[in-house]
Amino acid sequence: MALALVAAGTACNRESTSGTMVGYSTYTVANPFFAGMQKGLDAGSSEHGYSLVTTNANGEPNQQVSDIQNLLNRGAKYLLLSPSDGKALAPALEAAKAKNVPVIAIADSVDVDITSTVNLDNVAAGRLAADQIVQHLTKVNGSPRGNIVNLTGLTGTPSARDRDAGFTSEIGKYPDIKIVATQDGGYDTEKSNTAMNDILQANPKIDAVFGGNDAEAVGASAAIAAAGRFVPVGAPGHIFVVGIDGSKPGIENVRNGVQDASISQNPIKMAQKAIDLVAELEAGKQVPKNVVWPAQLITRDNIDSPEVEQYGIWSNDV
Length: 318
What we know:
- By secondary structure, this protein is an alpha/beta fold.
- The chain contains 10 helices and 14 strands.
- The chain has 2 domains: about 5-120 and about 265-295, 3-Layer(aba) Sandwich (Rossmann fold), CATH 3.40.50; about 120-265, Rossmann fold, CATH 3.40.50.
- The two termini are about 15 Å apart.
């Protein structure tokens, strides 16, 4: 599909050249997950003959509000978004509603009523991460006990809030598991690496780390190695690390015995599903309010299994 830079708006914006205009507002293109999202949107738009215009707010909620308003002013007939802040975007989304522009959120949710959401059950994903840590601590310590770190996702995003809620509610069932540090990892490898460096210096005993996404898990693993505290998966003294997304760096760390698990979603297929919803709306059909995307736990033990092969490792395609 032919692509061109958008003359106005933020850096890394782009658009296709013909067809019904579909606007996509994202808060980042730096995370590998969003490269997968863009690939799915490009493929879906090409299949349906839509003109896709993408804007990137570079992590700034106010810029994303402006981006959405610009997309509406340019005549977007449908609005897709990956929100930086579920509440801050409300005025822009109300403007879309006033113009009768359907809004679909992808891989996150917002705190206002919109047409549809294609999203992982992030509360359940947080619980699953906690369950993996509980199983590990029970195996190595004889009971669910130990010191753990919670690197939360980007503040303001509903996905970060929900993953944290699922994780902490599940861990809260085990009084001998202590969360010794909670830091905002910003869904970012560098920020999580810095946070984990400080946490390691302050805590001589850490048994496990939950990264709100794989970027955070990868940053934490690098900090563990830099501190001289890395022990391979399965060896005594190993610090258990689990993340979410199934991104390439996380999957590579799982395969190499650095990261224990990644709870994968599939941004390529989720984005394609969002475009399919646009096509249904275009045809005058009703669409579901929520499309819950299934998660797949990927570990070193099952990474080459038929189950994971069937689900797909999306990062192989980006």
